[in-house]
Amino acid sequence: MAFIPRQSRRLAVLLAFFPIMLLYVIYTFKLHDFVPSIAYMPTQVSIMEPLSSVVRHKFWPWTAKLDEQHTQQPTPPRSTFTRHIVAVGDLHGDFANARRVLQFSGVTDSFGNWSGNVDFFVQTGDIIDRGDDTIKLYVWMDRLRAQAQKVGGTVLSLMGNHEWMNAIGDWRFVYPSELKTFGSIATRQRILSSGRIGRTWAHNYTTASRLPLHPSIGRPNAPYPASGLQIQVEKDEFNELQVHLNSGNYPLSHAALSFVHGGLAPSYPELTPFPSRINDIASSLLSKVQHRKQPLPHPPHAYPGLPADATPEEHRLYDANGPLWYRGWAMEDDAVVCAQVDEVLKKTGTRRMIMGHTPDFKNIVSRCNGKIIIIDTGISHAYGGVLSALSIHYKLEPIGDEDTGESQQWKETEVVSALYADRQEILATEERVISGNILHELPITLGEENEVDFD
């Protein structure tokens, strides 16, 4: 028998235990939190937890009794979740009235800064045209976006048909006084294409938006239906990982709102996945418009139209049936729209469609029991309409009793209100009782590469 030196035997034993000790150190000191593939994959977790427990109990026997005590403690109590959303329609170059609306709706304080009193602020487009404050408004929106992100809030900005008109070179509604604020036609073209406003359009604005009412459905603007498997992973108060699957029967799957400027026509072929299909087409078209040689503005020059290499999908985006120009939800009879709305809501995974574009100068319009809401009230002095904002208060609170087996029941409350400078009107109130193991956490989408990250 070959003689193995004592030093080599010690080294062999040490190397044999090294992988186990490494896993123990990683998991004990929470180093796996810095490696997503370890932190979130249930297979890796199932390997590390038992190994670390065995080693811990071997070296420190007293930890076995401590772990046993933890497993015997009760499940942490469920908590109530709330979300507050405010949406505002067309602003059309009126900074003063926009300031008033955002202040009385609670989005900003008296100094025009983010108040922290809302979770999401949505502006549905048409900031530009018909007024002189184009630059002020876009700079202000970007400032609010940055302020909101610092405290956990979110600003969602949409491009309306007037943003697209100006990007294309259709300047029919540009006032001479507004043009002077840019200095010259060439400067305005540069700012809207490659300058500050053009860059924020490209990076911070979308043409459609889907906003979940609860985080378990996903992030804002994540595609519906998701192309990958959605799971939820959370740690309870004892640091135990809980993994849950969001299936097609998930009770909150449609607890979301859609926002566009004009409307989602029932016959529009690019509704799914929503809103990513629309936004991908819009991003492609905007890049083509901004990077071509800027045409002389219309009027007085000829209408430039879309770029020569625009695809059929990009033409459909900008035509009368597309999400920028469609007015059917505002103009058609109740019998027509209420018969069509549920199919569109089903396709987009939403409960309500919210849009601007078609003004009612007296009030926010709610149709089909709040499934369709039009929020353009002519806020700009160019129209002289009423100042308004839409408010949505959402709450999900636990109900039921552990002893009766109803511990997975929840009461869902949604209150939709129209806010005016001197009053508030409730447009819709809905309460539902749902059942399910619901976590107030964002899901992890396996196989989804295009999920929008707002962090």
Automatic annotation (TrEMBL):
Keywords: Membrane, Transmembrane, Transmembrane helix. GO terms for molecular function: hydrolase activity. The chain crosses the membrane at residues 12-29. Residues 84-359 form the Calcineurin-like phosphoesterase domain. SUPFAM superfamilies: Metallo-dependent phosphatases. It comes from the Eukaryota. It holds the Pfam family Metallophos. This is Calcineurin-like phosphoesterase domain-containing protein. It comes from Panaeolus cyanescens.
